[in-house]
Amino acid sequence: MTDETLLSVGDLSVRYPGNALGIGHISLSLRPGQIVALVGPNGGGKTSTLGGIAGFGRRGVARAYSKSMVLRGRSISHQLPLERVKEGVVLVPERDKIFTGLTVMEQLKLSWQPRAGKFATCLASALDLLPEIEPHLNRRGGYLSGGQRQMVGLASALCAAPSVLLIDEVTLGLAPALVNRMAGILRRLGGGDIGLLIAEQSLGLAFEIADVIHVLDAGRVVADGTPDELRHRPDIIDTYVGRHASGTAARNTISEKAATSND
Ligand SMILES: Nc1ncnc2c1ncn2[C@@H]1O[C@H](COP(=O)(O)OP(=O)(O)OP(=O)(O)O)[C@@H](O)[C@H]1O
Ligand SMILES: [Mg+2]
Questions:
Q1: Where in the chain are the domains?
Q2: First and final CA of the chain: distance in angstroms?
Q3: Which of 33, 115, 137, 224 has its CA 20 to 30 A from that of 231?
């Protein structure tokens, strides 16, 4: 990870029809190789934040405003979603990650962007990271399981050569073994040049892999910090996270055992 800022978002707000608040005044930044997680209760504003950064809300049902949205030193706040994809800001959406009528190969080709280089090279590196999808390349998306769709959604995003990857609930509906596998995949992605901003209900995964966590509730950031910093915030852990998910329970047990054995 470098100190260079990849993406900085200043005062992002999203409103829905009827002026309903999605999020209000959210600011965050992302460095290459960094994993930043958005966690919090349902309706907290995680999806709205990712959508606002992806450029949804400039036209359509939602309205998004920000004081600044800067990618590698250049403002992208005026850009529409497809223009942002071309700049490398790529969203893996919460649901409907794939087109059910297209084969997996067609979907990957559709997502491909010229900045990724040759499609064959980009396909090879997506399959290297996600070999589980190779047997399904010629199957239509509608025939895939939920977990397979998550993998294809992520592979499609990789074919767009992201520099900022926005991933909404990639562990949704995944079996525990696959959640562990996904943690490894995201860590590998985050270990490169890509900055990852992930919205996660799987708090165990967020605490395990994120460099920074923002806790969102009712459209506001109620706390942020590294996983270790948040583990020392009992107010936040008890209200929003739970001791088990944060790893705090396990750590307490270990330190209690250590204290007992020292007696
Ligand atoms: N299409 C919409 N129309 C009106 N209000 C919406 C719409 N989408 C989201 N909202 C509102 O915006 C707020 C934030 O929702 P958002 O979907 O961003 O939360 P979230 O943290 O992603 O929740 P979840 O964990 O359930 O996915 C909620 O109060 C929600 O009711
Ligand atoms: Mg959501």
A1: 1-88+162-227, 97-161
A2: 42
A3: 33
Residue spans of beta strands (DSSP E) within the chain: 7-16, 20-30, 35-39, 63-65, 68-71, 74-75, 89-92, 164-168, 195-199, 212-217, 220-225
Assigned token pair, 27: 């600011």
Considering only 53-57, 60-64, 220-224, 246-250, which range has the smallest mean pLDDT? 246-250
Is the beta carbon of 43 within 6 A of some atom in ligand 1? yes
CATH of domain 1-88+162-227: 3.40.50.300
User: By the 8 A CB rule, do 151 and 132 touch?
Assistant: yes
> Six-digit token pair at 164?
């900022």
19 lines ligand 1 (CB under 6 A): no
CA–centroid distance, 56 to ligand 1, in Å, is: 13
Residue 45 CB less than 6 A away from ligand 1: yes
Does the C-beta of 48 come closer than 6 Å to ligand 1?
yes
* Cβ atoms of 106 and 136 closer than 8 Å: no
State the distance from the centre of ligand 1 to the C-alpha of 198, rounded, in angstroms: 16
pLDDT for 58 equals 66
Instruction: Tell me how far apart the alpha carbons of residues 70 and 90 are, in angstroms, rounded to a whole number.
Output: 15
pTM passes above 0.85: yes
d(CA 64, CA 59) in angstroms, rounded, equals 9
Q: Which atom of ligand 1 is nearest to the CA of 45?
A: 18
Q: Is the pLDDT of residue 262 over 50?
A: no
Measured CA to CA in angstroms, residue 38 lies from 49, 79, 103, 125, 239 at distances of 9, 23, 31, 27, 15
Rounded to the nearest whole angstrom, what is the distance from the C-alpha of residue 31 to the centroid of ligand 2?
23
